[in-house]
Amino acid sequence: MIKITLPDGAQKEFEAGITALDVAKSISEGLARNVLAAEVNGVVVDAFKPIDTDASLKLLTWTNDEGKSTFWHSSAHLMAEAIQELFPDTKFAIGPPIERGFYYDIDLGETKITEEDLLKIEKLMKEKASKKSRFERKAVSKADAITYFTEKQDPYKLELIENLQDGSISFYTQGDFTDLCRGPHIPNTGFIKAIKLTNIAGAYWRGDEKNKMLTRIYGVTFPSNKELEEYNIMMEEAKKRDHRKIGKELELFTFSEKVGQGLPMWLPKGAMLRQRLENFLQKAQLEVGYLPVITPHIGNINLYKTSGHYEKYGADSFQAIKTPHEGEEFFLKPMNCPHHCEIYKTSPKSYKDLPVRYAEFGTVYRYEQAGELHGLTRVRGFTQDDAHLFCRPDQVLEEFKKVIDLVLYVFNALGFKDYTAQISLRDKENKTKYIGSDENWEIAENAIRQAASEKGLTTVEVTGEAAFYGPKLDFMVKDALGRSWQLGTVQVDYNLPERFELEYTDSDNTKKRPVMIHRAPFGSMERFVAVLLEHCAGRLPLWLVPTQVKILPISDKYQEYAAQVLTALKKADIRAEIDERQEKIGKKIRDTELQKIPYMLVLGEKEMNEGIVSVRKHGTGDEGAKTIDEFTGSLQQEIKEKTDQQ
Fold it and tell me: Is 337 known as a binding-site position?
């Protein structure tokens, strides 16, 4: 007999070899019908895998993220089965679940897949799902796996097998499709009730543009048609909120092929929006002791060799810039931190001088493949709201907590209320991706855990997502549509101070290494603005919006009065414009609504004679007449309430 401990602490005894599905049935048949997978001793496994020893057990359903992930992984296999039947010569690469749905990368040879083909694949997937085929796992030897995929002529699977250890390889089969896969999977295909294939894209094999371009098919599935309908409604809303569409409508930013892919240019209104965000953070930073610095856009190659960035990213970055001087090479700056390390070294530091906090809105450049570029969220040149804090080991916890406070101040001021703090740790099984000693990594990881705990943050821990020089606290923010974005980040680093030989003189007159904290509440200005636009559907907070008020004279007779109103608004530090077009007032109002300008002031005979303005609010409509002083006072109060809410 073995003991199974459930999440509520209850323990039950069963015979060894029982499965999670059997445990679920012992609780209720209804529960068993909804179990997709199981978490046994913290590891997600098939619900039908035998449990042979005492274990903690969590039953996973559609309500769990792990359950959804297993559901979508199985859906990728179902899609591959349908593709194999319709296009028998297809070579299969990888088919993982993603945050919302799944994809499979395939090699169709000379065949070009169309939107019409997606409908055929969808139809066949539904037919196969209805057969309720079991997902059968089979452990295979490396030799047998190689033989199978050699006969199948599937080069991508053979390449994956090369890096696998004998004894750790498994196949999963459902219906007529067998795939190389570690699992887990749902019990059978019958759980999949609603299917939508959403997109066709190109993707280089293993993300390397030197490799062949494969076809990537995206899809999403659900356990009911109702959820698919809700998803379709959300996707329609997402299209309306696309920051690229809103950015064009509001004249915020643009791209030019002649300038180069992934290099955004900020138009006047966008530049002013960005400047206000920068001013907002700069003011908050100065109040808590940050010192502004400015560093060049390029750096000598040896700077990045010292920091370790060249070793880790040099091959994937922009090529070196050579000067007329033989052997002299520079790189476009991929990070600001090496420059800040050199600034720290310009003068000797005592333990009394620490912490030192350097802040910079520094533009950096990283090469991204053309197929991965997307509006402002994935670019090749972007500006980070970067800061680096150099402190004593005994100051790390307090400084880290202050940075968390600053990140939350930014989120609250901009309406991001739903977020999770992700503690991003290194992968201890693959330490070659990182620099620094095990001891320093342990200290840094524990410092982040403690700081997050003391600030009362909801946290999750994710292995393998750390920076190469240290662990991170990444803030995963959910927008108005429930989509998750990584925005603010804080990182503890014991390694760069070692590599740059940074020092301070301690109270006992010995030389010590400072600890470095990297932080960026916005992350990057480009990505942050994109997420903000989609979150608020272009209806930016009043204090931030480029134009706060549009003045709408009914005819030319009232232009002079409109100019007087504009002067009064500007004196009150309110951003306003006059619509001087020869258009009817109805059209002016409609156009201003489309521009998402918060307030409109309609001016006609009555308003001019009485020295008042008729106020309309975006999305609300007529708010009645006010004196200019009343209106400016109400706006100033509204702005103050939002920006001083902390």
Answer: yes
